[in-house]
Amino acid sequence: MRKQTKLAAVTAAAALLAIGASMTSFAATGWVEEDGVWCYYDKDGNRVTDEWKKSGDNWYWLNGEDGGAMATDFLVEDGSDTYYVDSTGVMVKNTWVKVVNEDQDDDTDPAEYRYYYMQSNGKAYKSDTFSKKTIDGKKYAFDSDGKMLYGWVDKETNSLMSEDDGWKTATNYFGSWEDGAMKTNWQFLNVYDGWDNEDEDAEYWFYFGSNGVKRTGTSDADDTVRINGSRYAFTADGEMYYKWLAEASASDTASASAWKYFNSAEEGARKTKGWFKVTPKKAFDVEMSSDGNDEAQWYYADSDGSLKVSEISKIKGKYYGFDEYGAMLSGLVHMSVDDNGVIDAIYAKENDNRDADTSIDADYLDDLKDGKITNPGTLYYFGNPGNVDSDGALKTGNVSMSVDGSSYTFNFSTSGGVGNVGAGKNGITKKVYYKYGMKMSANSEDKYRAADVDSDDSATFVTRSEMLSLAGGSAQTVVYNEGKSSETKIKYYDLTGKDLYLIGTNGKVKTKANGVKDGEDWYFFSDSEGKVTYYADDKNVEKAIEQNK
Question: Nearest-CA neighbor of 86 among 68, 59, 113?
Fold first, then answer.
């Protein structure tokens, strides 16, 4: 006798007419109603058990476990085939049936019910190997017992993945036990990830192709899949990568050049051809400031997702600078840049978000003026200081600003292409003296100063002792006869041909100076170009020299 198990079940088919309406009682043979149940007697007067009997167009099962009573709401195991009869006892066809899951287990099989699909012949669809059956336009998988598979499925064994981490090796996902349809496209799934999340569940995005196969990758920023026009990266287990990811081929993952950004956990697409503002990646923040500053920064990615790093680059007609971490530069920056726009070194930044050796403040600028800082390069100015969300474009031409309450005027190159445009000017431009791009001027106490412009690119004011050295190491003396009754001895430095320019408090070159007094109560003289000719303790030095010829 075949074994059947009585299970509570619900059929998806519409209720049929009561069986009595389609059956006829016979005295000793055929269908007989006894004590409220239907039975079937053969010609010898014996109850038929564990067989199908037909009445009209319908088939009915006579359950041997119930002494041959017609089964209702029952899953029938007839040899290797599985059928289901509804509440009227009729074999159902072309429909879904759900049956209470007597093997329910929270860990291995948490489904409250298990689903079967009964085909046109009434048999449940079964498969010994992994395959997909299309039903009402959706694809489903079934095991060898006819149970609809759900969740993560083991393709090799054609069974549910019962282990907590089974999702990592599973290739397909078939939804919840109440759904079971094969999933394609993006799916946000809750999985057990004890290793990465301290024995807690985690939610990740997965992508399944049109064949239902899960996309996997190699955790490489360059190993990506194009989906709907964007690039995505996946782990070997199939989770969509997000935020920062390094190139597997990179020799130095402490360098920002090795990293690419894959958007947020909700989006995940690799950033390309544009700006994005995110928190820095700690993996390459090897020199992050001691205060742990990790404010979001602006970055720019090329068409392949590569960051612009340590360079000045032209983007949509404007020039922008990027530090060694790929962050957009802003405010004043003292750095060296080659003719191709490569930033060789950054010495100081006004916005010290990324731990330059020194922050640019009023003291730093004054030290630059006074020659106390001798780093090469020059100043550049990006956007508005103190505002990381400003445009950040490199400024050119004349710019006035206040730093720590002190006012400064700058002149940045307007031409020369990347690497030169925006560089702070050095030397004399339109009769104004600039150093590192700053307008240089004598202070109110000095009144006038001499600037050594031609000695190097980082021109600077010279001290009195330096002027004496340029004049030969000692002051000359000349006698000036003011009249027949008196004469004056005048000390002076002859600086003719030494290319020292005379600069006033307005930063402009003073031309044809005929004895202008400085803070030492000495007098400067200059020619028509503004070059210093004499520095003397008496304004009549030129007259005296002429008298003594």
Answer: 59
Could you tell me which residues come within 8 angstroms of residue 544 by beta carbon, excluding any fewer than 6 positions away?
478, 479, 480, 488, 490, 538
d(CA 263, CA 283): 17
Q: Beta strand pairing status for 343-349 and 358-359?
A: parallel
Neighbours of 293 (CB within 10 A): 13
Q: If pLDDT is split at 50, 70 and 90, which confidence band does 162 have? A: confident
Comparing CA positions, the residue from 450, 448, 470, 469 lying closest to residue 459 is 450
Tell me the pLDDT tens digit for each residue of 434-472: 989 999 999 899 999 999 876 555 567 889 999 999 999
Tell me the one-letter amino acid at 277. K
Q: C-alpha distances in angstroms, 270 versus 29, 179, 220, 413? A: 76, 32, 12, 36
CA angle 228, 233, 236 (to 5 degrees): 130
Q: How far lies 240's CA from each of 14, 49, 423, in Å?
A: 44, 57, 43
Going by the DSSP 8-state scheme, the letter that residue 123 receives in this structure is: P
Structure tokens at 412: 């940045």
Q: What letters, b where the CB count within 10 A reaches 16 and e where it falls short, cover 102-114?
A: eeeeeeebebebb
Q: How far is CA 375 from the centre of its chain?
A: 34
Question: Which tens digit of pLDDT belongs to each residue from 64-95?
Answer: 999 999 999 999 999 999 999 999 999 999 99
- Distance from C-alpha of 203 to C-alpha of 241, rounded to nearest angstrom: 12
Which tokens is 518 given?
């400085």
Exposure pattern of 213-240 as b/e (b: 16+ CB <10 Å)?
bbbbbeebbbbbeebeebbbbbeebbbb
Q: Amino acid letter at 403?
A: V
- Tell whether the torsion through CA atoms of 318, 323, 325 and 329 is positive or negative: negative
CB count within 10 Å of CB 262 equals: 23
Distance between CA 5 and CA 389 in Å, rounded? Answer: 70
87-112: average pLDDT: 94
Task: Answer whether residue 5 shows pLDDT above 50.
Answer: no
Amino acid identity for residue 232 in this structure = Y
Helix (H, G, I), strand (E, B), or coil: what is residue 455?
A: coil
Token pair recorded at residue 456: 């190097």
Cβ–Cβ < 8 Å for 151, 161: yes
Among 307, 254, 309, residue whose Cα is nearest residue 284: 254
Which residues contact residue 110 at a Cβ distance below 8 angstroms, ignoring those fewer than 6 apart? 104, 177
Q: How many CB atoms are closer than 10 A to CB 288?
A: 16
DSSP state string for 156-218: TTTEE--STTGGGT--EE---TTT-PPP-EEEEEEEE-HHHHTS-EEEEEEEE-TT-PBP---
The CA–CA distances, whole Å, from 295 to 226, 278, 279, 360 equal 31, 8, 6, 19
Give yes or no for residue 17 having a pLDDT over 60: no
pLDDT in tens, 233-252: 999 999 999 888 888 887 77
